[in-house]
């Protein structure tokens, strides 16, 4: 396993260089079933269930490729934290959490994800979200955009390998449970596009809407050429988590087998 900038992040294909291309897939899951899955682990949240489902998808996909590391993949989670003592003040922070990709049993994976997420949130609350972004205030505003463009042109992201911050990113948002209309047309679903970094070619976003959890999968064909297959892995992973009564007569998928090797 290669150690990342923050340590403990295994290298995967999703952290190989991206090439500017993009592919997309979207999946939907019953929100009541996702909510019910929280009860499998005391204290677990909807975010924990989403992360566990994504972790299971990554496990299945990488096992199929013979590329699953022995240690768990790590996700970065952009989040807003309220600043105590400042009315209406929110600051951007980025949490990191284990996805439990080294755990075959879905309930045990959910437990591990919940523990990791809780520890990460506690750390951010203790340190303060401002600590992660305050250094940007020292940069002259007029220089930020030119510097970013120069870094892209020179492929400097390959020199400072940001893949080791996390293996993927996951954003979650609570949406409305009432239908939205535009000029009389009802919005059926809402999927989003997220930007890539130089070494992160797989991004996820999840939003709840009208009784469903909608998961957007943004990939780069250079690292994820078969995004539909990855989406199928996600379906199987979420099916493992849903309580039996919420899955009707569907059979319970078998947990993915043991890790192939550690890259």
UniProtKB/TrEMBL annotation:
GO cellular component terms given for this protein: plasma membrane
GO molecular function, one term: O-acyltransferase activity
Disordered: annotated segments: 1-21, 244-263
Coiled-coil features, chain-numbered ranges: none
Database matches in InterPro entries: O-acyltransferase_WSD1-like (IPR045034), O-acyltransferase_WSD1_C (IPR009721)
Single Gene Ontology BP annotation: biological process involved in interaction with host
Pfam families: WS_DGAT_C
Domain O-acyltransferase WSD1 C-terminal: residue ranges: 90-241
Tree of life domain: Bacteria
Protein name (Swiss-Prot/TrEMBL): O-acyltransferase WSD1 C-terminal domain-containing protein
Species of the source: Mycobacterium ostraviense
High-level lineage: Bacteria, Bacillati, Actinomycetota, Actinomycetes, Mycobacteriales
């Amino acid at each position: 396993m290669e150690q990342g900038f923050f340590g403990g992040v295994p290298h995967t294909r999703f952290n190989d260089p991206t090439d500017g291309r993009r592919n997309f897939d979207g999946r939907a899951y019953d929100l009541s079933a996702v909510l019910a899955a929280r009860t499998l682990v005391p204290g677990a949240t909807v975010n924990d269930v989403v992360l566990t489902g994504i972790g299971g998808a990554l496990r299945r996909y990488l096992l199929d490729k013979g590329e699953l590391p022995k240690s768990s993949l790590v996700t970065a989670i952009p989040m807003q934290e309220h600043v105590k003592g400042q009315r209406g003040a929110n600051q951007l922070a980025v949490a990191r959490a284990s996805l439990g990709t080294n755990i075959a049993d879905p309930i045990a994976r959910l437990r591990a994800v919940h523990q990791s997420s809780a520890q990460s949130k506690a750390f951010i609350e203790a340190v303060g979200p401002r600590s992660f972004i305050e250094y940007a205030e020292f940069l002259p505003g007029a220089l930020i955009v030119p510097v970013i463009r120069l870094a892209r042109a020179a492929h400097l992201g390959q020199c400072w390998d940001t893949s080791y911050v996390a293996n993927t990113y996951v954003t979650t948002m609570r949406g409305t449970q009432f239908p939205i209309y535009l000029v009389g047309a009802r919005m059926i679903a809402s999927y989003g596009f997220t930007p890539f970094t130089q070494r992160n070619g797989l991004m996820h976003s999840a939003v709840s809407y009208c009784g469903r959890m909608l998961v957007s999968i943004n990939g780069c064909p250079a690292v994820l050429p078969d995004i539909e297959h990855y989406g199928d892995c996600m379906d199987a992973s979420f099916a493992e988590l849903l309580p039996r009564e919420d899955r009707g007569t569907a059979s319970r998928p078998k947990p993915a087998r043991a890790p192939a090797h550690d890259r």
